[in-house]
């Protein structure tokens, strides 16, 4: 008999993969892991709604709960669309999108890849000029195939951001080491470094 996947995987498979963070966790997978550990209730996902809660309840063999109103309300899924004439190219929406569904560059118009959009709505408050509108999501886009794709996009984005953070930290550490080396062989640089460190520590 085939071995069942870990509980967190089975829970994650039932979540809508919007990555909207309404549950209070950074994406669907962390929420699934919190449920598996018994740290979170099953009723914190507005996009999954009552049907999603019922599926989680059946999987975990526990009573279904009403959706936690502190997490939002159940409503039809929506797609983001950028009003291109109003876009200023600030990239804030690109930074906010958890699945890399928005493309563009600084000071250039952005656009939403509609088929990749999960309807998380995180880009809306990020936009400083209110040029993002929400429109009904086609019913055929709310399926397992799109959820699986969104999960993959989210994981790849998280991995990329982690690599970029590690690279920045390594570059800063190398720069600091170079400055420390130079300062140790030059009394003037050493005095400047001490003064800078003292200034950084002052309130």
UniProtKB/TrEMBL annotation:
This is RnfABCDGE type electron transport complex subunit B. Residues 3-62 form the 4Fe-4S domain. InterPro entries: 4Fe-4S_dom, 4Fe4S_Fe-S-bd, 4Fe4S_Fe_S_CS, Elect_transpt_cplx_RnfB/RsxB, RnfB_subfamily. NCBIfam families: rnfB (TIGR01944). Keywords: 4Fe-4S, Cell inner membrane, Cell membrane, Electron transport, Iron, Iron-sulfur, Membrane, Metal-binding, Repeat, Translocase, Transport. One of its GO terms (molecular function) is 4 iron, 4 sulfur cluster binding. Residues 78-107, 108-137 form the 4Fe-4S ferredoxin-type domain. It comes from Rhodanobacter denitrificans.
């Amino acid at each position: 008999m085939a071995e069942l996947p870990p509980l967190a995987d089975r829970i994650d498979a039932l979540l809508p993969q919007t990555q909207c963070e309404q549950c209070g966790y950074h994406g669907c997978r962390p929420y699934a892991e919190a449920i598996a550990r018994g740290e979170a209730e099953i009723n914190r996902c507005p996009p999954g709604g009552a049907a999603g809660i019922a599926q989680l309840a059946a999987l975990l063999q526990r009573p279904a709960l009403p959706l936690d109103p502190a997490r939002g309300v159940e409503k039809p899924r929506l797609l983001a669309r950028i009003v291109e004439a109003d876009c200023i190219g600030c990239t804030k929406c690109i930074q906010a999108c958890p699945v890399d569904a928005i493309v563009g560059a600084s000071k250039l118009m952005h656009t939403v890849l509609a088929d990749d959009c999960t309807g998380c709505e995180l880009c809306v408050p990020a936009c400083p000029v209110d040029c993002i509108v929400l429109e009904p999501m086609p019913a055929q886009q709310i399926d397992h195939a799109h959820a699986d794709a969104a999960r993959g996009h989210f994981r790849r984005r998280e991995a990329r951001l982690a690599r970029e953070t590690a690279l920045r930290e390594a570059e800063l550490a190398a720069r600091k080491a170079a400055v420390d080396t130079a300062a140790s062989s030059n009394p003037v640089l050493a005095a400047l470094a001490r003064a800078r460190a003292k200034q950084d520590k002052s309130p």
